[in-house]
Inverse folding.
């Protein structure tokens, strides 16, 4: 298992332990985690704190050059909002834990020249399937469904 994907999974588990949605992410620059986060929409009553957004926020304000040399790891395929942030900051590569339970904007990312690697890790898939089965209303809220 990739150490950075495992760090994103650990973030997702943290979110679940806090009563939130189990999606985690880490931003990596020069083989070091510079930002980590997990979906905290429920915990913070936030409209935007998806795992990727939380990792970017926790990385703090950075020079554009740093983003352009970084890799974002996320346990779940990024939604339109998170994909927009990835594109906006010029992050050149995204490693995705899984896209079986939710297919995000991977084609959009690729169309912008961003490298997208999908691992389809069983632990990520199982964690999301269990959460979705047990919390369909929260899951639908998170992805903008009714």
């Amino acid at each position: 298992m990739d150490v950075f994907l495992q760090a994103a999974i650990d973030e997702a588990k943290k979110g679940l332990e806090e009563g939130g949605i189990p999606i985690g992410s880490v931003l990596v620059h020069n083989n070091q985690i510079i930002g980590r986060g997990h979906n905290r929409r429920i915990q913070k009553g936030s409209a935007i704190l998806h795992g990727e957004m939380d990792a970017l926020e926790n990385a703090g304000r950075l020079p554009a050059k740093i983003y352009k040399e970084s890799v974002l790891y996320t346990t779940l395929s990024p939604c339109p909002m998170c994909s927009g942030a990835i594109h906006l900051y010029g992050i050149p590569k995204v490693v995705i834990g899984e896209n079986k339970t939710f297919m995000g904007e991977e084609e959009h990312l690729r169309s912008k020249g961003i490298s997208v690697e999908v691992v389809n890790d069983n632990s990520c898939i199982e964690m999301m399937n269990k959460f979705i089965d047990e919390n369909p209303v929260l899951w639908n809220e998170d992805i903008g469904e009714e």
Remarks:
- The mean pLDDT is 95.
- The radius of gyration is 14 Å.
- The first helix runs from residue 3 to 17.
